[in-house]
Fold these 3 entries.
Entry 1:
Amino acid sequence: MKSSVKFSNQVQAEFFNTLRKRVNQHFKENNITRFGNKEMIGKTIVLLVAYLGSFAAILTLNVSVWLLLPFALLMGLAMAGIGMSVMHDALHGSYSKSAAVNKFMGRSLNFLGGSSFIWNIQHNVLHHTYTNIHGLDEDIETKVIVRLCKHAPIKHFYRYQHFYVFFAYGLMTLLMLVSDFIKLFKYHRRGIVEKKNIRVSREYFKMILYKGFYLFLMIGLPLLLTGLGWWQVLIGFLIIHLTAGYILSIVFQLAHVVEGAEQPMPDNDGSMQNAWAVHQLQTTANFSRNNRFLNWYVGGLNFQIEHHLFPNICHVHYRKLSKIVQQTAEEFQLPYNLKPSFGSALQSHIRMLKILGREQPALPQ
């Protein structure tokens, strides 16, 4: 796959022009900012207090190890929430008007075992530009035992993936501790790192420093400050990451690997059939947009259509914008893929896993 994919359809360009005018008018008429507001600040405080408070409880409470397990579970829930609701918006530059605040909050990922630099390339650059395009969007690339794209090679054991995949999903953040180094090497080989005017050796050093510090905090401190055994600390560490990884994996998959979310490919000249904005409608899905808890907790990731069209707008505005986007899409006779509930989206994802586990690779266009 060439990375020089072109989105050019002048007929469809009018859709996004109209939509952008209506969205701009929404903010102007209501005299509100596109960035985060008091709700966003309150959410950040709640999630950080839940994460740091639970960690402090583990370090200081002299109780049975079994009574500490709920705090590890809460840390995992808060970790996923911080990733979806705080870090995600910050790295898109939509958390605050201040670039410094966005940079600071975006670096929260570095203190959760990840790399904000790698995330920016994988998510902001590759995923948002080349959504659901095989060979460019890493979110749908085959994960050894999980086939997420119809254009990928198939193996016989994929037919069982809808059973075992939910055990693998929990490993997401654990694997991130190592896979970030592999991705940095790959992005360096592709020349992406140099295009950002970053020295790869400096980035390797920063990743080692951040990840080493994170592991010291999460494993070293409990060993030094509590009476917990190494195996008890390890179990708590695994609970945190399996909880966060499971939540993050499921939420991400419900946006792009469900029925109705297509996986188009460019022609031999690298041209896509649709304009970029229409491509986002074609490859993305919303789910459970009337669920108040999900709207709060998953950081607008259940409004992926709005997020992909307007990633520079804070997610707290997506619920209201979704009506504008849906109406405009229907006016232009374009798809608006909405799953009414979390359960229906999950069922759709399972059906897609079954199809992808048996379907032969699609023929080149």
Entry 2:
Amino acid sequence: MKIAADYGFKTENDGLTNARALQKAVDGGGDIYIAEPGVYELADQILLDNDTSLYFCAGAYVKRVNNPEENGYVFVNRGAYTKTYNKNIKIIGLRLICNEVRSVKKGKNSKKVVLGLRGHCSFFYIKNLEIRDFECYDLPVEDFGIHICTFENVLLENLRIEGMKDAVHFGRGSKFVVRHGLFRTYDDPIALNGHDYVTSNPELGWIENGLIEDCYDLNADATVGYFCRILAGAWSDWREGMVVQRSDTVVSNNRLYRVYMPVDGKTYVSHTRPTHETGEKEYDGIVWAVVQDGALYGAGCKNIHFKDIYLQKNRSIAFSIHFDKDEYSRSYYPNAKSPVQENLTFENVVVQADRIPRLLWSISPVENVRFINCTLKNNSVHFDNIHETGIVYPTTNVLFSGTKFQEEMPQFIRCEEGTSASISVANTLGYFTSTLEGDVTVRSADVTLNKAQK
């Protein structure tokens, strides 16, 4: 056991002194205790190694202050910089004050920041991570609270996160639990982004086998985004003459490369194959960033279970099964093989907000969606079409079981042209007056479902 104060981590010290002291305490791993309450300034990032557990006592706060050189993250695993897995890291009881300090600077990333990794607490190439009893009430406008990518076995429990950006942001990985969360964020409380902006995840791939349980989307006056963004993507091999834009991905020389250009909506014609092995390099006026090794062509989410979710904030959409298509990123490159997100379960989702027109909106291909024992108001399910060349939408199997409708529903399920759904409805409770729009097949139902008049 190590006591951080014995290494010089003290409330009366400045942020750089505290950063050096805490780094000494955590070097070599072990159990490190911040045992005295108070506000600890921190002006540099702390690198965590294998078998490290940090414990903050009640009343202890970490306050970010600006480093005159570079800020970096608050906590990050050391292997994030070399793509080397770290294992068995715990952070228990962290109360973070961001103090308007950013991890990622505008423009090109600093040398302390991995391209695409942008959380105050960031973990990349991590196994067996546990963060519990985490509080932050002032997330600034561009950095996530907790950011995790390329992971296996993650537990996030007892979270209270408020502010302007995503509370919890995942990239590729498997086996995770987010439990007991109170969120009030301007953007997405939870993002499951298999694909992402070039500056918002360091690698791409599938996010699988997750449980998000007992979480609240707390009410707020203004918002963008969704309670959860479930983001897929697809791309192709590089070819001469292809037209690309910011965040586009290609496979070349058995690696993934991404376009790292300004957010201006411009497109570029690529004539030279990217072949460099690390970092960023310009070809034909296009900056390409190396993302990862391997000929991967798609990404998304599979086997995700939402349970006991309480939606208190007015949003246009609560859950988005998503493709991006804007100046920041387009998730689906024309004529790529369509990824299919699948096995998404929504259990005991309770709508408490006055206005959430769409409980779920899907614009990416998806199979097997289940709503179990949910309590809804006038909240529809909408399957949409991104209208890109080459995309194929399979029929989505949808189950509603034990759903309680607190209000009449003029629209229940809507399928836009090119999409279709096959539904079963059982054990319905409460009001039910609703219609189906588009290509919807009813396998079985214990209520009357009317087709909308064209």
Entry 3:
Amino acid sequence: MDFIPHDKETIKEMLEAIGVKSLKELFQDIPKDLIIDKLNLPSGLSEPDLLFQIKKISQKNKNYSSSFLGAGCYYHYIPSLIDFVISRSEFYTSYTPYQAEASQGYLQAMYEYQTIISQLTQMDVSNASMYDGSTALAEAAIMSTIITRKNSVILLKGIHPEYEEVVRTYCWGQNIRILSTDEEDLHTKVKNEIAAVLFQSPNFFGDIEDISKLIKNVREKAPNCLVIQVMTDPTCLGVLNPPGSTDIDIFVAEGQSFGLNPSFGGPGLGIFTTKQKFLRKIPGRLIGKTNEINGKNYGFILTLQAREQHIRRERASSNICTNQALCSLAALTYLLALGRNGLREVAIQNFQKAHYLKKELSKIKGYEILNRKPTYNEFIVKCPNIDALINFCKQNNLQPPLKLSKYYPEMGNIALVCVTEMNSKKSIDKFLELARSALNSKKEENLK
């Protein structure tokens, strides 16, 4: 978006219009120790020189030909239609629909988003989006304690470590007790005083969990305990059973895979769904459709705002203050553009290409696939020399997989590898070639 600075005459006119004599007077409420008299900036440039300089700076960014990095942010194909739709001024300049009569277009888009997410997940209710997957999970944890009137939740091993950190931060502020466990010891931790069990599937390591078995184990020990599922790449719903078919109480996900560029890690899109009976406890907004009292026309309204921004903030079920309306519009456009068959094709390609790499990688001596469950488009592999593999990938214009020791120091030579429909067979075979080169590099080090 272009920026055109105000000249002195325009500034003078604006100050006169609001009855202020100077900029200093306008900013008088800012503490003096926070005011910077002069920025240490170079002198101004002409527009051509400025554009040249910005382009030069942008070339510092590394654009890889193919990526094997996932871990919560994914490279998927984005149809050109999406940028066309969300770039329309009536969408990208809108903020929030406080005046329903003046915001029918955006309210309808949000209503349609809720509808398509409910259909995709087979959950009863979807809200009009949240910040991202991690904060949606944290809000779900808090919501479970409000519903059950219990003050403890369990985090199952395999949740994205950054998501877990956000949940812990939210729960710390609410004095909610957090327990951590793995699937084997879950039955010993689930008790009647637990509000919810939170788990991720496919999890951070790529494993697809047996959700029906997990829910059964929880219900047998604590019938009133809620089960909350989070997902970081919901394109898998093109082939996996939807959460609504497995008696999940609250399902949340990161919607970045639905038509949003990875960019520098954002923006994201928080998908939040739940059962009908928990509708009034859901955070954020719900958009509804209604008819005229005396007429046949219909319109869209803000049916529910559980934020309680305006009154009783201390009693609010959530204090979230906005939504990702533009991002949810992108997700809506993406899902409509692909349709049921298109999303299924995306999911099949993700599954098959990742399976191909996993199978071929396991044939290379020194590489061991560590997943013991089915996986979608991510898996973990023990490498003979992970640093060499990462360096070779960078040198050959491939974005390398994640070195898991970033989050788990004990996993020194283990990589989390991701493959999507954007990875060609040529790039996958190149990765395999580099994996062999990394193995030879290890042998050379041993000889020295």
